[in-house]
Amino acid sequence: MKIIRDRTIVDDDFVHVTDGSEQAAATKPIVPLAEYVKSRETLLARHAAVGVRVPSDKLPSDIPDLQRLALIAIEFPKFTDGRGYSVARMLRQRHAYRGELRAVGWVLRDQLLYLERCGFNAFEMKPGKPLDSGLEAFSEFSVRYQADVDDPRPLYRRR
Amino acid sequence: MYQYDDYDRRIITERAQQFRGQVSRRLSGEITEEEFKPIRLQNGLYMQLHAYMLRVAIPYGLLSSTQVRKLAHIARTYDRGYAHLTTRQNIQYNWPKLTDVPSILDELASVEMHAVQTSGNCVRNITADHFAGIARDELEDPRPYCEILRQWSTFHPEFANLPRKFKIAITGAPGEDRAAVRFHDIGLRIVENAAGERGFEVLVGGGLGRTPVIAEVVREFLPKRHFLSFIESILRVYNLHGRRDNKFKARIKILVTALGIAEFRRRVEEDWEASRTPELELTDAEVARVSAFFAPPPYESLPATDRVEGIVLGRDRELGNWVRNNVFSHKVPGYSAVVVSVKKQGIPPGDVSDTQMDAIASLADRYSFGHVVVTHTQNLVLPDVKTAELSKLHAELRALDLGEANANKLTDLITCPGLDYCDLANARSIPLSLEIAERFDRIDYLNDVGDVSIKISGCINACGHHHVGNIGILGIDKRGEEFYQLMLGGSPGNDASIGKILGRALAQDEIVDAVEKVLGRYLEIRESTDERFLDTVRRVGFDPFKVAVYGTADPLEAAGDAA
């Protein structure tokens, strides 16, 4: 599957897995949060890199040992559900999480810039949506009023 | 007023460009109608009953004469020759063609205006006291903070997909709240603490709509430099925990009520401690930069003598009434603030024509340093008029049909668009407001009844703010017929209260009579001519008014199906 990572279209090296046999076979699995919470020591010992898939109603404090995760995927059950933006910002700024932060689910081109500004660096677009059109979204604005994850200075400290 | 620099211009230009692309991707099918909706809304474009409606932002209600002329031009060129002032100090066009919208946005951008975030589940236009900067009772001009908030809220990446819309209002006048801050998601009052420092009292969770709630204090004193980070924490707690399963339970007031203010406050303070960064602190340089745009205009040094009294007592009764009702005190000697009422018999409240807008722009240039302010009561203010020129200005306004002497009086009605425009409404509001205006349009009667507000909503979404009308009227649907509930006792100000239903709903041919009976009873029972309608209602309660309207104060008889 193709995803956008760091503003580039790449082949996904992670796989979403649900049951145990799939998990064992994958080098870089993305497992549901509940599964990770249940058996994280096994997972972290067995795989080169572990990703976790976080439902939209969870907070960073619900993810144990998050610094050991190579990837955190935040679910967007609907494109209008804005919780993930706050969760991402908290992960990056408050928890200093430096791994891959991926938006999954109902992810659309016109969300990408705001998602990136909140700390996401990878995007699984909603199936059927073109990825190349998505790449254009990142450069639609050359000025930002607010602080964001890239630059903690609001415009009034840069003006 | 604030002037764009290159940064502000680029942001608005790039937004227009972005929207053009989004429209074309919608037309090509890449974006579905469902996915397009929030994009369209956050660019001010609503789908109404008959057509699109474009809502243009007027930050804190302040306009230059150049902008007013542009709004007139747009009304003439792209609409049907008029526009509509809203209760959020914005202006809307009811009949634009979708294909014209990008051109309208370009026209707006040419005068530093836009339609950004005038709808949708995001932070909306910041509103303020319409006498900001000129009120005698003001501690400090709130407009620099409104502008700083406008920039902070414009395309804030974290808060563009909130559970529901989010409205912020600011006042700098402790004595009288003309911005209804207690009925906003966040209300900010500039206050002074015991040490003499200025800061904000922060209120949260107020609102009207289906569930009217008076805001509660979440922070008694917030140092100014922290106001952006603190507001971010309120929004973050709301964004993460506000309900998303039911749009009628999604406003922040529902969350605050559910958690209780103490727990809500604890969560906000906890988030604030964890999230605020030194960079987010407001700098003195930025406050100074923005404040400079709101420096007082070059007032002349005039004698403090008040000519207003002389005019009121003079021979021209029409002028005297207008001065008494529509002219307000100004902090600078020799100047007055003038409310230009657009509430004229036969015209839907808030509607203003292209020729009127052009004329007002010209009056603003000649009498008021080129500034105009939109009030949340759907009128206009010329903020800086020389008191000595009031009679000349009144003569010009009268010639333009804008000389109504009814500010804050019975016929200065607030209404939503109602069933004539809106697909949510149960009942028509505009015809009712026109009928009320016609019934009571006698200046002696208006003066006798004094300050009283009538607010009309065509459905429970309460766009006409009926909950905070001294007299509130709510359109309901009863077995397919339009009925109206009558409420008394609401107030949006420092003495905030939510009106209560008087009794059973009234039919279309009963409601205006009922209003007249209520007012008649007030005139009979008020203690003196100084006792306002609202004070009388608060003093005597509902029974005398129930008797007046329903013939009985018997709760069962009067209540009917009121619940």
What report would you give on this structure?
- The complex is a heterodimer of chains A (159) and B (563).
- Chain A has an 8-stranded mixed sheet.
- Chain A has a single domain (2-157), classed as TIM Barrel.
- Chain A contains 5 helices and 8 strands, in the order βββαβαββαβαβα.
- In chain A, β3, α1 (20-25) and β4 form a beta-alpha-beta unit.
- With 159 residues, chain A is of the alpha/beta class.
- By secondary structure, chain B is α+β, with helices and mostly antiparallel strands.
- Chain B folds into 4 domains: 6-110, Sulfite Reductase Hemoprotein, domain 2 (Alpha-Beta Complex); 134-291, Sulfite Reductase Hemoprotein, domain 1 (2-Layer Sandwich); 308-352 and 372-399, no CATH class; 414-559, Sulfite Reductase Hemoprotein, domain 1 (2-Layer Sandwich).
- Helices cover 37% and strands 17% of the residues of chain B.
- Chain B is built from 19 helices and 21 strands.
- In chain B, strands 16, 17, 18, 19, 20 and 21 form a 6-stranded mixed sheet that branches. In chain B, strands 1-2-5-4-13 form a 5-stranded antiparallel sheet. Chain B has a 5-stranded antiparallel sheet with strand order 3-14-15-12-11.
- In chain B, α5 links the parallel β6 and β7.
- In chain B, α3 runs antiparallel to α12 (354-367) and α14 (430-440) crosses α16.
- Chain B is globular, with a radius of gyration of 23 Å.
- The termini of chain B are far apart.
- Chain A binds chain B through residues 59, 79-83, 85-87, 89-90, 93-94, 108-110, 113-115, 117-118, 129-130, 133, 140-148, 152-157, 159, and chain B through 5, 7, 10-11, 14-15, 17-18, 21-22, 25, 30-31, 35, 38-39, 121, 148, 151-152, 154-163, 228, 236, 239-240, 244, 274-275, 277, 279-280, 282-283, 285-286, 289.
